[in-house]
Amino acid sequence: MTFTRRLSPAARLMGAGIVAGALLGPMVPASAQQQDVVFLSTQLRPIEEAQKVRSVILKGFPGKVTYLVEEPPAFDVRMKAEGQAGKRTISLAGALHGELQPLVASGDLTPIDDIAAKLKDRGIPASLMDLGKLGTQQQMYIPWMQATYIMVANKKALPYLPAGADINALTYDQLEAWGKAITEKTGKRLIGFPAGPKGLMPRFYQGYLYPSFTGGVVTPFQSAEAQAMWAKFKGLWQYVNPNSTSYDFMQEPLMAEEVWVAFDHVARVKDALTQAPEEFVTFPAPAGPKGRGYMPVIAGLAVPKNAPDAAGAAALIDFISKPETQVKTAAEVGFFPVVKATLPADLSPGIKLIAEGVDKTQNAKDALPALLPVGLGDKGGEFNKVYSDTFQRIVLRGEDIKTVLAAQASVLKGLMEATKAPCWAPDKPSQGACPVN
Amino acid sequence: MNALRRTVYFTGIVALCAWVLVPIYFIALGAFGGRIGVFRWPKSILPTDTSLAAMQLFLQVEGVGQAMVNSIIAACITMALSIALGAPAGYALARFTFPGQNAYRLLILLTRAFPLAILALPLTVAFIRIGLYDTAFGVALIHTALALPFAALVSASLFQAIPRELEEAAWVFGCTRLQAFLKVVLPLALPGIAATAIFAFVISWNEVFAASVLTVRNRTLTAYLLTVLAESPLHFRFAGGFLLIVPSIVFIFAVRKYLFAMWGIANR
User: Fold this and answer.
1) Is the pLDDT of residue B182 over 70?
2) Do residue A17 and residue B216 have CB atoms under 8 angstroms apart?
3) Where are the domains of chain B?
4) Any transmembrane segments, and where (chain B) (predicted)?
5) Which of A13, A38, A47 best tests the B interface by mutation, with the highest count of B CBs <10 A?
6) CB–CB of A354/A334 below 8 Å?
7) Does this complex have an ipTM over 0.90?
8) Multiple choice CATH, B61-267, 3.30.390.60, 1.10.3720.10, 3.90.226.10, 1.10.579.10
């Protein structure tokens, strides 16, 4: 009996759990508020950015918006599941070009040509609008905001720049010499790349390294230029912090001074730049023999099929693509306008650094824009893996360059043939699947 | 000799406490140390220039309160269901021999064999059709499925550890099977069941993927915060981590007595 008395609080606890669960569970309504526009986004996820969207950027919108964020895999599952089950909760989807692409094949997006027609006078460049068709004849998304990748350097690294080098027109040779000088003087490897599991390193190969050295991404995958390029990059890697293979965002290693010179997406160095703008400089990625490759990043706004509030979504798209909202977006979160808009002169110092870096990248004399992979559908991840594997085998494991390139080229070829994706810039246009020579 | 033993004993205690407390202390330090503090090196052990800014922003994020409530609801339902289903299953495994017993034991574990990421799409579609989508109850059902194998197997070994003779003695004195279970076996097993409940609670509290795919507005706290946490500045991660471990610690602290009682059984 003593046992029962001593243990009865446990029983009570259990009982309370059961009662609370049984009472509260069914009472939670599926959706308490039906009047708002649900805006689901894979962008602007970090907590401060999401708060800025809710409390600053979308503040002037007349209706009520519920801004939700989600990681890309969950976003994909949700969009497809809601489509298959025939019940939508999402009225507006904001995601990267490549994340919206698979939703066309699954039939989860509504063509929004009418909205596009209404936004004609906003001055969205035709090339961006074309990307928004996602390979179809109709407008599938409206460009939302853009970004790109830049280099950031701690000012302590500047004295080691090789003589005669212009930081805004670096070449890969000069970057290597710079890294070498830093390593020789400090004894540390202080260049950094986001080659961690969630880092955006594949974009560096596809948008920067390959275009700069070979003038293409897919077709010259195993060309002589590509072989020379990997040898060069392997040389550069001697001066790259070996921890790079665990970096997902470069802002932390930059702030902790684990690295002095880093390459990453602007959103992923923003925190360092806004925290300590006086410590850093921004500049474009280096150039190779074929030019200065760079990859613009486009996020778009799409309306799911059978959206519960399509009219609200249209109004929200209209609001977000107003020049003043776009400028606010740039000033608050560092993603840049897709419409014609002039950024104010009084940007905060950190955002100003980002804006300068982006501007110098886009307007470099030898700029060579490389588009996001188009037409790969849901094979985008495998496409990235081809490049990451090539990097790992050649640079980290030191395998023979020619052998690795030949092996990976056949994987790439299979991928292109399976998806029948035609070439995209900077590769030369192709009839049918993009060839891997 | 005695003094030496005492020294070793206390050193052991201190080391074990430090093992648990030092990381928590550093998380707290990061959470309250402000934005720049987390990058300072060498780290100061004492809390200098504390700031509540990160914590405040967290608590001000729209919907954190609601998410917390959802988390508690889901965790409580998970706890209740996994005990209600797992304990009888465990009892059956421990006391009865039936054909296919071993296969059954294995089958229970199979619910953990499929990664959720693969099941996510069909599961979400089914949940939408049934009408469980975006409810804490739906999330709790999935979490119960995840917690059930542990609940069943842990309680099976619990019941096995309680001598059958005690139960038989109760029968001799006129108890029915049910009465014998309720009056003799259950009280002895309760500490272990409480531990199983904690386990179920923690599984539900920490699970992210199912919770975020299956809900839109009614997110649990982990789904609401954790998905964005990995990409937020470091001091927010510390603040979020701190916020997420506090309820678990409080819960475990509240039921610690029964946990120790369970070790008592095991040692007998």
Assistant:
1) yes
2) no
3) 1-51, 61-267
4) 7-32, 72-94, 106-130, 136-159, 180-205, 234-255
5) A47
6) yes
7) no
8) 1.10.3720.10
